[in-house]
Amino acid sequence: MKRTLLYSSLLALLAVSCMDRYVIPEDIHQNDPGNFGAGDTTFLQLSPVWDGSFGLSKPTEISIAQDGRIFVADLNSILVFDQNGNAPAGFDGLKNLTNSQGASIAPIDVDIDKKMNVFFIDGTQKVFVWNYYWNEAGIKSVSVSGTFLHIETGTEIEQNVGTATWLSYLNDAEYELTNPVFSDEQALIDSLLSPHLFYDGSHDKNTYKDIHYMSDSSKFNGLTTPAGNENMIFVTDHFGGINNQHRIIQIDFQRSLLLELTTGDLVWAFTGEFGATVLGYGKGAEFVNEPLSLDVDYQGNLYYTQTGEYFPVHMMIPNLSGDYATYSSGFNQGADDIMDSTLYASPMDIAVDKDRNIYVVDSTKNHVTVFTANGQFFKNAGYASKEDTVSIMNEPVAVTVDQRGVVYVCDEEDGAIYRYKLSNTLDEDLNPEE
Predict the structure, then answer these.
(1) What is the C-alpha separation between 359 and 404, in angstroms, rounded?
(2) Contact status, residue 87 vs residue 81, Cβ threshold 8 Å
(3) What is the C-alpha separation between 268 and 383, in angstroms, rounded?
(4) Higher-confidence residue: 229 or 4?
(5) CB 258 within 8 A of CB 20
(6) Are 248 and 153 in contact (CB under 8 A)?
(7) Cα–Cα–Cα angle for 335, 337, 342, nearest 5°?
(8) Which long-range contacts (CB under 8 A, 24 or more apart) does 30-34 make?
């Protein structure tokens, strides 16, 4: 295979890539509980508590992939569990995370898309990615150059990987990549198989497009990936500053490389590119003010929590009929319980289940407040029984829900994950705490 002097520029480009082909295995979930009903009673704690004996130290965030695996940001690692708390093989690459300079990375949020890209953030202007499928299948070679054919005129242009013109032609619908040249340089392959940079707000292409904000100063503290095949992710930026840089950003996928896997498949790799500020700073129901967390449902509605005025919890509905998406509030003050700010003290995280029921974890009240899809209060989770007023948890900071309706809550102080389920949906595979 060809070896090239473009090695250093390739490393820089390879360090910002993900992929565009992966079929999720058959769903492993069982016992669909459906929507909340009149017969639902209370959320019972499930046994055992996942704690230090499961390898947990300080679980900070949690997310569930579409195949049911559970990803937990914990210190400088992302730990992976199945729904029984066992650690599946193949995810050691997410432990002891470091950047390209060898410095430790402490992830503060993590999410997984349908292609099994594991995205995570560390509180800076950067987003990192690790791809499970690449590691499972193996990468045979990586494109280093190629010829671009202008479809209309037939003009051919040769380009090398690592240049702005390569990216421009690769993402231009008027051009087609032909005769790609591949390299099997092991260092290049290893850079893609390891966790690596996907997006950096300080890169010139992103500061150029993000002209109204200080992109290189962004501080991402929330991350979510759409449920479908959309080539985008969303992050919350809470940099603040004199211009109140509080917002939600859309980061788009940009083709960067062609990979040949050991299976013989050819797949695209991507880098992140600034897409848009979809919601900006303000104090009303359609603005962002000191955001804390972010989630998205299967319809593309965005949910987020915040500490600034005036409403701690928001749901925004996209309108995609124009040239770009606009968002409007999905809940109304006074009519929808979820807009009642007295229900919250520190709404640290939000999650939405498959039926669009909403879960908000509060680190001061030490429980999870559950709402129906239309924003009406349903129940609190985190207590041993309906009569108890003292929560089981001490510092819950993150929440997620699987397809069975099991609620997972990260407790930083206890170094544990607590699990809850509605009592009338328990089955023989789920053991309530005695």
Answers:
(1) 15
(2) yes
(3) 47
(4) 229
(5) no
(6) no
(7) 120
(8) 30/404, 30/427, 30/429, 31/404, 31/425, 31/427, 32/403, 32/404, 33/404, 33/405, 33/422, 33/425, 34/355
**What's the rounded Cα separation, in Å, for the pair 73 and 70?**
10
Assess whether pLDDT exceeds 80 at residue 50.
Answer: yes
What is the Cα–Cα distance from 272 to 216, expressed in whole angstroms? 14
Task: Give the pLDDT confidence of 328-365 residue by residue, as tens digits.
Answer: 999 999 999 999 999 999 999 999 999 999 999 999 99
Query: Which two structure tokens, joined as six digits, stand for 365?
Result: 């009240």
- What are the helix (H) ranges across 210-348? none
Give the number of residues written for the chain: 434
The kind and range of the H/E element at 10 are helix 7-14
Give the whole-angstrom CA distance, residue 326 versus residue 334: 24
The Cβ of residue 3 has, within 10 Å, a number of other Cβ atoms equal to: 11
In the DSSP assignment, the letter for residue 53 is G
- Using one digit for the tens of pLDDT, what is the confidence trace for 80-127? 999 999 999 999 999 999 988 899 999 999 999 999 999 999 999 999
Q: Name residue, tokens 């328990």.
A: 426
Query: pLDDT digit string (tens) for 124-153?
Result: 999 999 999 999 999 999 999 999 999 999
Q: Is residue 312 within 8 Å of 347, Cβ to Cβ? A: yes
3-class secondary-structure state, position 246: strand
User: Quick check: 131 and 94 in contact, CB under 8 A?
Assistant: no
- The β-bridge relationship of strands 77-81 and 109-112 is unpaired
CA–CA dist 279, 232 (Å, integer): 15
For the chain, which domains are there?
22-130+204-254+274-432 (2.120.10.30)
